[in-house]
Amino acid sequence: MHTPVTRFICLFILLLTGLPSPITFAQCPSGNVLTLSSQEQIDAFAQTYPDCTDFSGAIVVQESVSGDIRNLSGLGNLTAINDLLIFTNDSLRDLSGLFLRVVRQDLVIQNNQSLRDLRGLDSLSALVRNFSVTNNPSLTSLRGLERLVRVMGTFTVANNPVLDTLGGLELYLFGGQLRIENNEELQSLRPMRFLRRMTQGVTIRNNPKLNDFHPDLGIPVIGGNVSIEESPLLPSLDFLSPRSIGNLSIRDCPQIADLASFDQLDAVSGSLTLAENDLLTDISAISFLNPDSLSSVVITGNPSLNACAIDVLCLALLLEEIPVVINGNGEACSSLEDLRDQCDEFPLCPYDLVIDDENSAAEFGAMFPNCEQVNGSLIINPGGRDLLPLQNVRRVRNGLRLINSDLESLDGLQGLEEIGELEVINPVNLPNFIGLESLKRIRNNLFIVNAQELTSLAGLDSLREVPNGISINQTPRLRDFNGLSQLQSTNGISIRNCVSFRSLNGLDSLRVLGGLVIDNASSMTRPGGIPLLSTVDRLIFANNSGLSSLDGLEHLDTLRLGLILIDNGQLRDIGALDNAVPGILVETGFYSLTVSGNSNLSACASPLICAMLEDPDRVSSFIADNREGCNSREQVDEACLTGVSPRPVATSLPVFPNPTTGSLSLDPALHGRPIDWRLLSITGQLLDEGASIPTAFDFSWLPKGTYFLHLREEATHYRARFVRQ
After folding, report:
1. Could you say which DSSP state residue 267 is in?
2. By CB neighbour count within 10 A (0-12 exposed, 13-18 middle, 19+ buried), where does 79 fall?
3. pLDDT at 614
4. Are residues 345 and 320 in contact, defined by beta-carbon separation less than 8 angstroms?
5. In whole angstroms, what is the distance from residue 201 CA to residue 521 CA?
6. Was domain 651-724 assigned CATH 2.60.40.3080?
7. Taking the model in full, what pTM does it have?
8. Among the CATH numbers 3.80.20, 3.90.550, 1.10.10, 3.40.91, which is that of 24-217?
9. Which residues are bridge partners to 103 per DSSP?
């Protein structure tokens, strides 16, 4: 029996060592922070906590005696942890011995004198918060991060003097801030070619040898500050595609000639600084910023910049509400007075144009007779009448918004060719979109809600692209997509609560579609087809009381991310998807499958679903409340084993040479055969297609990157992944 004195001594030892004695054994250590300051303590962790795989606190690895900590193998049981901080370990050369898959908060690697790379983090796939690699004087690469695809906080690589590559880093999803600073030997951002999104800004500062990035990299930045400074060899800013940010600073980047990749930038909610950029000649891409969101403008020391009279600067001078500093630039932009002289001759347009009575449009036409572009939004409110004075307007940078409008026609907008988005909410009388016949591109979304009288999408016949998606909700008289016959690509289509909607007919040119959602379209019995569409990210059919089959989708051959079928009471047949294979067979990532509440669906052990269920580690599945035979995951698994003949889907196809500089050959036995083939980008975009196999494909026109070649011969699908270098 242990006396109180014994217990006190044991607790005292625990406080000194950070590890419990055997009498206080638990699955994982108690407390929020565990500090390991010697190799002995690290080795003891595995012996003391052999079953500890998920630690809900932080571990700090920081040696108390220089050179003592040499490896982290004692932590090899851990697969998940809240925080891991590795500080000031002089002999640690890599992180071998770790098998972490998830770090829920922060991973910090700092001041490790001998650390050369990050091997040991090979299993890490997700960071919920922050990642920081700083002040590691021997670090040469980020090798070891190949599986890390998601970071939701700040990603910092700073003050690593011999780091010459980000090799190893292949992030796909990024929700926070990117900071790359003071890395004297870093030359390229090329390994970051898959990066998709940042919401808290970008700082790239004082990387004197940085001169390269992947040509496919164009990171959307939505939120936070953008600061690109002290980068003497950086050739351009094409790796960024900011949308709406805080402060913008481009300073001391002598090779940058323009801001062309900033043409999607809608707002800078803070200061705008362009300074000491020797070759900067063109800033027209930021013409469309809203001056009301700016707090200050500084444009100085850009000796090649001769044209400053852009919309945002001229409007800022006109409003006289923010400080504007202009000096030391080219001759026609050398001072505030030069800018004023140029702006006096500049054809101004209002930032926002609001039509809210019968005189608004006429007043606009009289005041701005030469205005072709509205840099903000065109808003048509109740009372707005007679749009004919707007016929010279060609572009609306932000959106065309009809909110509670009582217009019966959009006649007068025939000149519009491009708008930021189309937002139609509660239009009282609008039956169609006649008047928009020249509209070719909507840069963001098409959004229609509660359009009670809308019966047709006629008038949108020239529309080719809606990158961010189409959403139509509570529009009871719309029956199909007739009127969108020229639409070629959109990120998603959502139809919700449209009781008369019957089919997908009308999308005759659509080739690229992210997701398709049909929810509560009670008149739909079968979706019908989109004849040129072969790849979709997600299919969702929910609460469609009349839907009996998925007929019309037979042409789909790939579902990249998931299938969801919920509460379709009459659904009996999903055989139309038998030609499709799940993207999980040909791509990395995760897949979702939900089949629930379809009370008449008994046969769901289709080749598609069975193929999905073969990889439970990468598929999140829920199957329940359908008819017997499809009423649980177990029933479907059994049916897949007994009732579905395996078919050769996603057969690997050898191609050579791989990587290639352009010429790509297949097995000679395939040459000349009538086999359908398609070339896809890594994001699933159709790039080329044909109906026979040549002796050699000529893909020399492709930009450098990764691509998929898909072949289909009767029931057999072939997939090849190759790299154009």
Report:
1. E
2. middle
3. 77
4. no
5. 40
6. yes
7. 0.60
8. 3.80.20
9. 81, 127
**What per-residue confidence (pLDDT) applies to 539?**
95
Strand 686-690, strand 676-681: pairing: antiparallel
- Written as one letter, the residue type at 66 is S
Cα–Cα–Cα angle for 677, 679, 685, rounded to 5 degrees: 130
Q: What's the rounded Cα separation, in Å, for the pair 248 and 274?
A: 8
3-state secondary structure 618-641: CEEEEEECCCCCCCEHHHHHHHHH
**Locus of tokens 């690895």:** 61
Chain Cα centroid distance, residue 211: 25
pLDDT of residue 287: 86
Question: Looking at residue 18, what is its pLDDT?
Answer: 40
What pLDDT shows up at residue 198? 66
Alpha carbon separation from 112 to 72, 189, 249, 683 (Å, rounded) = 13, 23, 32, 38
Low-confidence ranges of the chain (pLDDT < 50): 1-26, 585-588, 644-650, 683-684
Structure-block tokens of residue 218: 């164009």
Supply the DSSP symbol for 27: S
Question: How does 275-295 read in b/e, with b if 16+ C-beta sit within 10 Å?
Answer: bbbbebbebbbbbbbbbebbe
Concatenate the DSSP letters of all residues of 280-348 into one string: --B-GGGTT--GGG-SEEEEES-TT------HHHHHHHHHT-S-EEEESS-GGGSBHHHHHHHHHTS--
List % helix, strand, coil for the chain (3-state, nearest 5): 15, 30, 55
Cα first-last separation, the chain: 71
Spatial contact of 58 and 33, defined as CB atoms under 8 Å apart: yes
CA-closest candidate to residue 505, choices 527, 488, 477, 521: 527
Per-residue model confidence (pLDDT) at position 715: 52
Q: What does the block give as tokens for 569? A: 């009471």
By the 8 A CB rule, do 440 and 464 touch? yes
Query: Quick check: 277 and 302 in contact, CB under 8 A?
Result: yes
Q: How many CB atoms lie within 10 A of CB 633?
A: 16
**Spans of all domains in the chain:** 24-217, 399-643, 651-724
Distance of CA 272 to the CA centre of its chain: 26
The maximal CA–CA distance of the chain, rounded, in angstroms, is 97
Was domain 399-643 assigned CATH 3.80.10?
A: yes
Nearest in space to 529 (alpha carbons), one of 552, 496, 506, 498:
552
Residue pair 180/154 in contact by the 8 Å Cβ criterion: no
- The Cα 411–Cα 515 span in angstroms is 32
